[in-house]
Protein: Transcriptional regulator
Amino acid sequence: MKLLISIVQDADVNFLMDALTESGYRVTKLSTTGGFLKKGNTTLLIGVEEEKLDEVLSIIEANCKKRNTTTTIINPSAESSLLTNTVPVDISVGGATIFILDVDQYIRL
Ligand code: 2BA
Structure:
């Protein structure tokens, strides 16, 4: 068995969870925050048999979109004035960031 730790954008979560549960997969949703943008995102824990891994990855890919956003970062070469100290950068977020771990044991009591 594998455990997928899947970080997705909040806007994709409901569609993704519906698609996964309708296909018979069990999912746990955690509210999380990205370290770079400091904005909310969602982490899904999905335990899945190895032979179903590709199907789950396809469902995630089909439901998680790439989106562009802008943030500001500190410009280290700028003078200390607040206006010139930050620069805007364009960022592409998503579709999904997925960690796939081997599950040692899966117990439901
Ligand atoms: P955030 O950390 O808020 O990152 C949002 C987006 O900002 C990232 O999208 C990426 O495009 C950009 N970004 C992140 N760190 C950056 C950096 N040091 N320099 C320049 N750009 C940077 P995604 O790659 O799609 O990641 C979406 C979210 O997935 C992340 O939100 C974070 O919560 C999670 N994530 C991604 N990679 C991770 C990792 N290696 N470990 C833990 N969480 C990760």
Remarks:
- The chain is about 25% helix and 40% strand.
